[in-house]
From TrEMBL:
UniProt keyword Transcription regulation, yes or no: yes
Name under which the protein is recorded: Nuclear receptor subfamily 1 group D variant delta
Domain Nuclear receptor: residue ranges: 21-95
GO biological process: cell differentiation; hormone-mediated signaling pathway; negative regulation of transcription by RNA polymerase II; positive regulation of transcription by RNA polymerase II
Residue stretches in coiled coil: none
Gene3D superfamilies hit by this protein: Erythroid Transcription Factor GATA-1, subunit A
Organism from which the protein derives: Mytilus galloprovincialis
Length: 95
């Protein structure tokens, strides 16, 4: 295998690719597209939309606001999930 002729970059700004699949920047699930400025899955897109539209105040995190948001546990701590959404660059001004 000659890796220098691979046209596609394996990694771009920390994005992880599984073949042609782009992963959600928030939870690592399969991204459904570019939402609010970042690649995100349907779940995180909807979560972020609800959060900003309804201005939801989530219960503060019980773990120093350092939960590791993954697909399997992304619903466990909404506080950290929203924090992660913002940390990865999600913005209401994005599309
Ligand atoms: Zn997600
Ligand atoms: Zn948390």
């Amino acid at each position: 295998m000659n890796t220098t002729t691979m046209g596609k970059e394996a990694s771009l700004d920390g994005l992880e690719f599984d073949g042609d699949t782009v992963l959600c920047r928030v939870c690592g699930d399969k991204a459904s597209g570019f939402h609010y400025g970042v690649h995100a899955c349907e779940g995180c897109k909807g979560f972020f939309r609800r959060s900003i539209q309804q201005k939801i105040q989530y219960r503060p995190c019980l773990k120093n606001q350092q939960c590791n948001i993954m697909r399997v546990n992304r619903n466990r701590c909404q506080y950290c999930r929203l924090k992660k959404c913002i940390a990865v660059g999600m913005s209401r001004d994005g599309t």
